[in-house]
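Narrative progress, year one. The postdoctoral researcher (J.K.) led the effort to move from monomer predictions toward full complexes, under supervision of the PI. The following entry was the first complex the group processed end to end, covering 661 residues in total.
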Amino acid sequence: MRNRPLLRTSYGQEVALLDTTSKRVAVGGLLVVAFALPWLVQDEMLQLLGVACVTAVGAIGLNIVTGLAGQVSLGHAFFLAIGAYTAAALAGDPEGRTIGFGITEVLIWLPAAGLAAAVAGVLVAPLATRLRGLYLAIVTLGLVFIGAHVINEWSELTGGPGVGRQPPAPSLLGYDLNTTDAFLTRDQKLYLLMLVLLVLAALTARNLARSRVGRAFTAIRDRDIAAGVIGVNLARYKTVAFGVSSFYAGCAGALLYVGAGYFDPTSFNLLLSVQYIAMILIGGAGTVSGAVLGAFLITLLPRLTREVPSFLPFISNSPVESPNAYQLETVLYGVLIIVFLIFEPRGLFGIWIRLRNYWKAWPFSY
Amino acid sequence: MKDVLESILRGIGTGSVYALLGLGFVIIYKATRVISFAQPAFMLAGAVLVTYLVKPLGFFVALVVAALVTGALALGVERLAVRPMIGRPVFTVAIITLGIDIAVRVVVNALIGLDVRHVGDPWGLDTWKLPGGILIEQRHVAMVVTTAVLIAGLFLFFRYTRTGLAMRAASYDQEAALAQGVSVGAVFALSWALAGALAAVAGTFAAVGGSVSESLWLVALTALPVIILGGLDSLPGAVVGGLVVGVVQEVTATYQGDFPWLGGNFSVVTPYVVMLLILLVRPYGLFGTREVERV
């Protein structure tokens, strides 16, 4: 077996998660580095990486409904918002200016946020069973606008535009994660929490994709009528896809602003949805690792563009002059989407596959 | 009663702008089966061009020049970013147009800058008094007249010219049209150019009486519920949808004060609410053709 890594003798080996030694080594090494990072990098950078982890959870969620099941959803911001406000309301200060119930236990408000969003997803799903393709995309876009109106107006819950409210303060089994103590700083604790969540989310999504449900999703994506003919219950699986995807979005929304300590209802707009679409397309639609890569790239992109003015002096760092770094960042979103879709539709994941295949056969061309 | 009539008249005015925008979306959809999310950017580009050109050229000449330039811009975008994608899934192309929209809009927003820019139209907020004391804004009359003229022109173009016939043929069946000697590539290009020009005119009229700002983009997004309402592939549907959405929006704007639980500015989201309600009953919109599905 050692010298013949591609020899499979059972179905279990065929569908194994980490089927080669190099994959096991790579994933293990990556996990060790990820868990060692809190002691290796600055807290400021950790906070950004934590946000990237949470964003990756959201991107994996969108990837389930759009990448796997093929139902184009521009409404991800809506589900993120539901998760964020459910969690913030549950964990909020009961005496505060906005609605709060004072339950700071993360094991309670995080699943609750996911469930609230999942219920919303299941309620939206009947639209997906009636509509196809671009009709569905525009209807989910409508959801974002209606949702944005509701949260902008409901200022008892959200604090109102321009004022905002505090995100939930997490504590795990009575251990306060929101303050710095003798062992760990606040950012280290939050990063570890978010990293664990990302690992769990990625593993669950990967397992879902190689189960019966995942195969039903891909059948629907590739040709929904054919899938219906061979016995896939379209209504049921589309509902499941929306439910699971929204659960991920709800969990991501709940934790997204914990590091920042403040969030505003106007952040849940169409641009947020488009960013998530960009993540899964740039990363590689239909793959968990692609979604994670894309999420990290898009989250770290603003950080990279802030550095550009020191290399290119004609780009300004001040938002009132143009061209400035903020404009550069937005243009890059657009240009990256276009370039990836035209030249590498499989995204970053596809680039990795090409590199791997090149070196696998090296020095021969195939 | 006076309030209702006035708001309906206002609604027909703004609705005709939506109709123009919707027509652009539908023309592109009919030719390429793609919803172009780049339309809002072209609309903004057209309006901004007018604000720059209105000083030397005057409003009407500036409007025509801006429409032509925006049409050319749309043509270029189609050539560069959309033509290489022929044969790929429509969703992919739609997302590419979303990318184009983001990129173009940053450039246009930089051109708007921090000043308040006006399109310099001759109407402003002047009104005419109709019998019965009903006030009608001149700009709304201008919008309706412009839209009516453009729709009549489009109708004649599609009905009586060779190119119009070629476009109808290509939207009906691309391969059969190719076999008859229609250049489908030229049809795609022309559709994008037409849609870009219509968006520029619509953008300018949407900014009449106000100023050009980044938020004009939201007006263009209202055209999405409009086309879904009318049916993605129906030109009359876009016009009817535009008028319905415009009237509903203005009537809601007049009476939303009586329903405080709806929240302020509820009229902004009414198009989406109307769209959801209609789609639950008719999944292909009011006039859209039902897709025949095959494995």
